[in-house]
Each structure stands twice: as C-alpha cells, then as structure tokens.
Amino acid sequence: MTTPATNPLRRTARAGAILGLASLALVACGRDAGSDAPVEQGEAIGDGKATGTIEVWAMGTEGEVLGDFAEAFAEENPDAEVEVTAVPWDSAHDKIANAIAAGETPDVTLVGTTWMGEFAESGGLEPLPEDLVDSAAFFDGAWGSTEVGGTSFGVPWYVETRVLYYRKDLAQKAGWDEAPTSWDDLKQFTQDLQSKGGAEYGIQLQAGNTGSWQTVLPFAWTNGAAVTNEEGTEYTIDSPEMVEALDYYTSFFDEGISPTRMLDPGELESGFADGTYGSFISGPWHTGLVEDQGVDEDQYGVALLPGVDSAGGTSFVGGGDLAVFSDSDNKESAWKFVQWLADPATQQGFYDEVGDLPAVSESWETGELSEDPQLTVFGEQLDNALAPPAVPTWEEVATVIDGEVEKATKGDTSVEDAVAEMQRQAEQIGTGL
C-alpha cells in the first residue's frame, strides 16, 4: 500500500460523475426528425497519417493538459496540428449544444457519458467509423455509453466507478475482518458498525437530490432491473426488480442506519474521519478527500459493491467519451486523433499524467494500475458496471428519479408509488428515440 502522499488515486480529481446539467432541446441537423431508420457506422478511415489542424474541446483537467500531451501525436503526424480549447464543465453542455445548432463546431470534443444520447440523436455527432477501434478492448459499461440506437458515436476516453468505502478499524471492532459481499451482509455490516463499532451511522447513502440515481440504480441493476428496453425506445422503470431494490435502499433510512438529510459539502469526509459515518459508496476521487481529513490508509478500505447474493454487485460507470462533430472540417484526421487517444499505451500515459482511469482494460494489466491494492478494486468493479441508457431524454428522467428517491427515503411516499411515478413521468417524457 502506498503512503497517503504517493497514493496514485489522489491524482484522480474527478468530482463525481459527469455534471448532470439540464437537457437542452436541439435543432435536428443531419438526421430526419422522427425517423426510425438505424444509423450505420461511418466508413473506415484511411491508413495514412493525420494532416491539417484538428480543433479539440476538452473540459476540466483534461482540457488543461491535453494540448501539451498531444505533442506526441504531432510528432507522429508532422503535418497535423492539434489545437485544444479548455472549456469549463459548467458551461460545456450549452456550448456544445449551441455549436451544433449553429453548425459551427470544432472537430473533436469530450462528451459527458450522459450527454451522448442527446447530442447523437440531434445529428450533431458523427457515427464512429468501422474498425477504428475494437469495442471488446473497452470495459463493457463504458462502451455502452457511446451507443445510441445500436450505433456508436464515440470512443470511451476515461472512466470512473463506485465502490464501498468503509472504516476498517471500526469494522474490526465490530467483528468484521472482511467487507460484506451480499445485501444481507451489507445490512448486518452497517448495523454492526453502529451497535458495535461506534459509528453514529453505519453507512451514508444519498437520500435524494441531484445525482442520487447514480447510487440507487446500481442496486436496481444488481437486482436485474433495467430502466429501458433493449432498443432504448421505452422506459421500463416500473418493475418488481426496481421496487425490490428501492425497498432495500430505503430500509437503511427507515432503520436509522443512514441519515435522511442532505449533507453539507465536506461533511461526509470529516464525518468518515471522526467515525460519524462507518461507510459510504463513491468513486476514486474520495481516496484523496478522506485522507486529506486525516484518515490513514490503514484505517479504511475499499471493496466491490455487494450483490444480492455473494456473486458481486453492479456499479455505475461514468467518465468521458470522445466524439467527432458532424460539421467537422477535418473528420478523418479527427478520428485518427481519437484513435490515438484510445490506444492502450496512450491511455496508460494519460493516467500517468493526470490520474484518469483508462477505459481500455488492457491498460490495467501493468504498472500501478495492476499493483496498487485500491486501484485493483476499482479495476475489478469496472468489469461489472453499467452506464445509464444513452437516450436523449435521460437527464430529464434522472431528475424525476432523484425527486422520487428523496420522497421515498423521507417516507413521504411509498416505494411502490415512487417507482410508479418515475414510470409515469418517464413515459410522458419518452426516450427521444
């Protein structure tokens, strides 16, 4: 185990899943509105080197460092020049949407995984060329985020997923030497953290509010629920599996194992440090945050999400995808740049640079990604993780789910009524496909 100062996961400063901004209606530009005809993958690109200027939009840390990192691509393609514009995440959605509507886009953009359906269905993104990359090389859940109506419109660039964080010292005090592996174990584990380990709350689960669906849906997926049909044309939220999963989720609030109020910024991390919260579910960025609050690496552990039985649970996969705009002036070279960024060696190099977890599974087979105990847990969880459906209206429906989860956790509505209302509003909204 590395020391807190050198923990490789501390480089991962991803602030949760890609920001869930309100969906913006787009003008159809390149696809016939209302057409049910499937979109074919693009034609394969040539074998030559990239040429010309490749304009790229990237957000967050990626936007800040990609320009310098891409110099290696320029060395391999001396007739090409990569120009990167850093775009703040909080304005990225509207900037992309407005550019598509105006027909004035760069060539390549980083796209939040939950935005792919919206921008692809608008006609703003170019279908992925045939044989550009091998889809089997990527984590299944990450690749699924690029597919809209059976067609891929991009390539996964980096990923994140959620695991169980727990105070090992409190667990040992409560008689647990290993993390729970089943739902029954998780309930007993969190109860014991309270009654025997000294935690005020055995676990902190999100009691609604923005993004709570990212914690709730893994329980539903683990239980066999699906929020849309396979084609993505209908929402299928109201199922016995969904009701059962939400009933299990809300039981932690009903039994006082998790607090029902929303926490203030920083409260989870400080509460984990002082023993208020014995466990929680989150992504790799939280290793650095809890260590900054004084939690020693020997005091806490990370573990795969428990399954209904001991087979293992399904988690959420988020991150960022790379896409080429339909209005790009240099599409073939743009795709060559995307192809280069998706190469396993390039992905591992970008991890070394900024700590982004690679979407290509081969990149996890060497170096820190294969040797660090915490990292390997995230890597294993990525083998059993799903993205939300890549449909244009997902952000709207996610907001509905967040609201109904909050009502259910606070006891303002029954689980059955909450799920039925999710379905009712989702049907009114439609998938957009």
UniProtKB/TrEMBL annotation:
Signal peptide: 1-27
Cytoplasm keyword on record: no
CDD domains from the UniProt entry: PBP2_MalE
Gene3D superfamilies documented for this protein: Periplasmic binding protein-like II
Keyword Signal: yes
Entry keywords, A to Z: Signal, Transport
One example GO MF annotation: maltose binding
GO cellular component, one term: ATP-binding cassette (ABC) transporter complex, substrate-binding subunit-containing
InterPro entries recorded: SBP
Pfam families associated with the record: SBP_bac_1
Highest taxon of source: Bacteria
GO biological process: maltodextrin transmembrane transport; maltose transport
Family affiliation: Belongs to the bacterial solute-binding protein 1 family.
Protein name: Extracellular solute-binding protein
Species whose genome carries this gene: Nocardioides glacieisoli
